[in-house]
Design brief:
- The structure is a single chain.
- Helix content is 48%, strand content 5%.
- The chain has 479 residues and is mainly alpha-helical.
- The protein has three domains: 4-103, HUPs (Rossmann fold), CATH 3.40.50.620; 112-166 and 200-292, Serine Threonine Protein Phosphatase 5, Tetratricopeptide repeat (Alpha Horseshoe); 310-474, DNA Cyclobutane Dipyrimidine Photolyase, subunit A, domain 3, CATH 1.10.579.
- It has a five-stranded parallel sheet, with helices on both faces.
- Helix 13 crosses helix 14 (340-354) and helix 15 (358-368) crosses helix 16.
- The mean pLDDT is 90.
- Bound molecules: flavin-adenine dinucleotide.
- Residues 236-240, 243-244, 274, 277-278, 281-282, 285, 339-340, 343-344, 348, 365, 369, 371-373, 376-377, 380-381, 384-385 line the site of flavin-adenine dinucleotide.
């Protein structure tokens, strides 16, 4: 008899098994949901995906409900193996379990030792664009298709068909009943429940991927930096939760996008944008997480030591008057997801300006988004959005004012705040917040060309004091 293969909730696709006979252990621990206040739809998705996988595998699988993983493994009492887990905490735990074999990672194209050799050669100058070039050459991805030059920003895409809906089944109904009961018993969630929006099985995820490649990918180029379109998805694939649950293997998805480019179904700029996200950014962040280890987490570089306010933590969009923030927060509350630019320029930017603690914000993203994942948070929230990683990845502080948000398509018309106003009752909280952020971090931003130039335009000390006083008074109240 082969060993049991223990599959975590991020390892639910076929590429985490070797053959059709393998015995599979799946463990559902209530403590995972009790310890952190997760988005209700995220909790639903995880449970639904685990239970669907158990149902698919039938007699080969054992789905164990236990208080802890250790208890489940002890109760099983037989040799177990697992694919390399996706977090340092899970790996540390695995190493404490006697007789548990950890196999190499799956679901990534690039190799850890290869990356380490590349990164060592670069002596700390780790830029995603360089990694993307290196990895494409190394793995023959879009090898003969150079990334097109950046294009001027376009208008949001129109008439892009939405992803096909998910049809819930009896497993989802049972998950909903269980979560309702847990809530009555005291487990707390954030966000609203709703029909399941995201794939819970490999088959559902494949349908979404195919649909994206055929219908949405062609419209995907040139939407960088935009905040919204008719369906709020900006032609993105909305597949991040499927990749992070391990339902989809990135490599075939990357190759399929390549083929769409070759067949002429999608323009090279769109193919590169998708592949850069999945093969560039995603692989790069995964490798950085392991390359730097715990050193990567939360260096307090900018003045950022305030706790997250309650209204933000609870996704209380109704408390917010600023239309852009209210809209994005409501989207997170109702769907557990937001497009990339909204995460950076509306959510992350607000926390950066207010000096919220990067690690708390990362935890919030991790709990509130269906795709929230520790190893990605590290670099995207701590690094990219809060600039607290000592600039280890290629980014400047993502601080922007209200005028920038308006140009990106924020719904400023009809908002009670005026994007260009810095001072006064109508001052946009992002515009006043941007200027106060510049002053508070004056010395630290001296080396950043864009922000140093913005500071150089704002030298009047009386105005500076007025902005700082106004924003201090505004504090962390919902804007
Ligand atoms: C503050 C902040 C927090 C984020 N947190 C997460 C997170 O917890 N989990 C997560 O998967 N992504 C995260 N991202 C990255 C990115 O926003 C999401 O992957 C993307 O918006 C998901 O939507 P999509 O599937 O439609 O992506 P698409 O634009 O269709 O891209 C395809 C796939 O590429 C990958 N990808 C694209 N961009 C990135 C990126 N910058 N970093 C890593 N992978 C990328 C994702 O797997 C995604 O599904 C975060 C970005 C920011 C700025």
């Amino acid at each position: 008899m082969s060993r049991w293969r223990w599959l975590l909730a991020d390892q639910l696709g076929p590429h985490f098994l070797d053959d059709d006979a393998q015995r599979v252990l799946l463990v559902e621990t209530r403590s995972l949901f009790a310890d952190r206040r997760l988005h209700r739809q995220k909790a639903h998705l995880i449970l639904s995906a685990l239970r669907h996988r158990a149902a698919e595998l039938g007699d080969r699988a054992r789905l164990v409900r236990a208080d802890t993983f250790r208890q489940a493994l002890t109760d099983l009492g037989e040799p177990v193996e697992m694919v390399h887990p996706p977090s340092r905490a899970a790996l540390a735990f695995a190493r404490t379990v006697e007789g548990l074999t950890v196999l190499p990672p799956r679901g990534f194209v690039t190799d850890r030792a290869d990356f380490a050799a590349w990164a060592d050669r670069r002596r700390g100058r780790l830029r995603m664009a360089d990694f993307y070039r290196y990895a494409r050459e190394r793995h023959g991805v879009l090898a003969d298709v150079p990334p097109p030059p950046r294009r001027p920003r376009r208008r949001p895409p129109v008439d892009v068909p939405p992803p096909p809906p998910i049809v819930e089944d009896d497993i989802d109904a049972q998950v909903r009943r269980d979560l309702d009961r847990w809530q009555v018993e005291g487990i707390r969630f954030v966000g609203r429940d709703g029909p399941r929006r995201y794939p819970a099985t490999h088959a559902e995820a494949q349908v979404r991927l195919r649909h994206f490649l055929d219908h949405r990918l062609p419209a995907y180029a040139g939407t960088e930096g935009l905040l919204g379109d008719a369906d709020g998805l900006l032609a993105q694939s909305v597949l991040s939760s499927s990749f992070n649950l391990g339902l989809l293997d990135p490599e075939p998805a990357i190759r399929a996008a390549e083929r769409a480019g070759r067949d002429g179904t999608a323009p090279p700029a769109a193919v590169h944008r998708f592949v850069r996200g999945l093969f560039g950014w995603r692989e790069f962040l995964w490798q950085l997480y392991w390359y730097f280890g715990p050193r990567f987490r939360g260096a307090g570089w900018l003045a950022a030591n305030r706790p997250l306010p309650e209204w933000f933590d609870r996704l209380d969009a109704d408390a917010v008057e600023a239309r852009c923030l209210a809209g994005v927060l409501a989207g997170v509350r109702d769907t557990g997801w937001a497009p990339q630019t909204a995460r950076l320029t509306v959510l992350g930017n607000y926390g950066l300006q207010r000096g919220w603690r990067p690690a708390e914000l990362a935890d919030w993203f991790g709990r509130s988004f269906v795709d929230g994942t520790d190893w990605i948070m590290n670099a995207t929230v701590i690094g990219m959005s809060q600039y607290a990683d000592l600039a280890r990845i290629d980014t400047d502080p993502w601080a922007f004012d209200g005028a920038h948000l308006e140009r990106a398509g924020a719904p400023c018309a009809g908002c009670r705040y005026v994007p260009k106003e810095t001072l006064g009752d109508d001052a946009c909280p992002y515009t006043g917040g941007f200027e106060a952020f510049l002053h508070r971090n004056r010395e630290r931003l001296a080396g950043d060309p864009r922000l140093a130039a913005a500071l150089a335009e704002r030298t009047d000390p009386r105005r500076r004091d007025a902005v700082l006083a106004q924003e201090e008074k505004r504090g962390d109240d919902a804007p």
